[in-house]
Amino acid sequence: MFKMFMPSYLPDFRRDIQAIVAWSEDQIAGLAVDGYGRLIRQALRDVLEEPTRSGAKARPDLAPHAYVYPMKFSRERVDGERVKAVRHFVLYRCLGQKVEFGRLLHDSRDLTLPLAAELRTSRCGTHLSPRDLK
Known about the structure:
Number of strands: 5
CATH topology: YaeB-like fold
Strand content: 15-25%
Shape: globular
Strand order of the largest sheet: 1-5-4-3-2
């Protein structure tokens, strides 16, 4: 059996999740909101299982040990109805046996150095509760 990496979550990551859930509840139907929540959880599990998995792109220009993982690569592993248009990606760092989740952003977002400032300077993350992923 494989060993999963330990997660930590930066405050911006928590805010991103909450904003995505709030927008989804306001703009799209309930089943789609549930589906996107399942997709987010699957993408996080996929990154924790193998941070350098197929689809992940190293981004040392953003922060040391930084990666970007488009959630569309996790869509096929989600149970239930699949999300058709997957437009978000996960920005994270690999630090030994720990994965530090920094941001969860829409693919239209420009990845600039100020965006990754918290990721570059962080030393610890926070706990993400299951209710944040509805």
